[in-house]
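Thread title: Can someone regenerate the structure for this chain?

I was given the following input by a collaborator and told the matching structure tokens would be attached. They weren't. Posting the sequence so someone can regenerate them.
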Amino acid sequence: MTSSDASDIPPDSATTHAWTALGGDPALLGNVAYRAVSGGLPARLPVAELARATVGVCSLAAAELGARRSGGAVPAVRVDEGAVATAFVSERHLRIDGRMPTNFAPLSGFWRAADGWVRTHANYPHHRARLLAALGLSGDSGPDELAAALAARPARTIQETVYAGGGLAVAVAEPGESEIPLGGLPLVESRRMGEGAPRPLLAAPLPASGVRVLDLTRVIAGPVATRTLALLGADVLRIDSPGLPEDPDAHADTGFGKRSAALDLGAPEGRRTFEALLADADVVVIGYRPGALDRFDLAPHALLERHPGLIVAQLCAWGWSGPWVGRRGFDSLVQAATGIAAIEAKADADADADADADADAGGHPGVLPAQALDHGTGYLLAAAVLRALTERQDTGGGRHLRLSLAGTASWLIHGIAPAARVDGPAHDSAPWLAETASDLGTLRYARAPIATPAGPLDWARPPGRLGADAPRWL
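Best answer:
Regenerated them for you:
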């Protein structure tokens, strides 16, 4: 059992909603509590409630799986809001030999359009090149040239022109005016697929010990999920294409506990190696947009036909149906397109007694205090995998799990009631930061927020260099 005190917060409606979406036993909700802190993730929207709920249900799912493996009762877990607030901005706390990584490139951000605002994403070189080409700008154009080009065009025209050119830009939507049908988006989708005998996991020191996870994800949300599974004992092998490398700084943040290999799935040898890995995998986590890997015969139904009993977990930006289903997306773009950026801009204007009267209509859009859609969806995805592993022990069969950043955005806007705040100590990230040596240099990093009966865990290994590991299971 974990200790508690007067500042502990019992499970709230957000935790209940998330645990229900995961198919969890409601009788277990009393096993999770939160240690309160003040000022961790301040925002108009209930970001702190979302953050602690996603980490809380992930911690509970881990405790449930560990208990099922050992044959004991599900233990209580106590999540620290300070750890959650620190982990939700882990990329900002990262230091590599003292260097602070740049989280957004110069051409990524909000820009005035002729009739409003747009948000661009150009962190990756190929996205930057496509953005500029779509707008008729030269490849060496900078922020001033981009600002002038965008200011002369309507926001929706920019959005569709850049999308047609393979780049990333969205019009900033007012609340309730999003082009994304948020009302029908589920938080978690889970389906049992196929038949098969139960696949029990033996008792082990950690809940996911011995579980083999193929990690086909990039950026933040998917890598946070697989980083969490690695923390809990899984053998996580990340696979990247040699022609599409990840940002090394992003990998330094989310690569803890994993190994990383490069495979060309378009080459016969690469496909054979990948199929051999699949044959012994328990879980495949896919973070590419819907349909992007179908040409490699990696659609979920194809994977489950070849490998009954596999757990296929998918993540996308915009949901699994509708006009934007095939579009690329990132947390910052989803915030802009769903009305979150406008809501947070209004919060900024409300806080400023001298704000202009038209601040709501024309003021600079705002942002959440963290890439909360990414991190929150990542912990939910890890929780869904853990619950699927628990269920598979009893029922067998495969599982197909689907989550999206837009689904998490819908939950944040429409599904979470702000909870009455419990006074706690002021948030301090220092206790939740650590340093380690690695092949990338000395890393300062945010510790994991997942709560266990034995206390906080740390990863068994720091991130290594991208693609440096052999494509084989331990």
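The mean pLDDT is 93.
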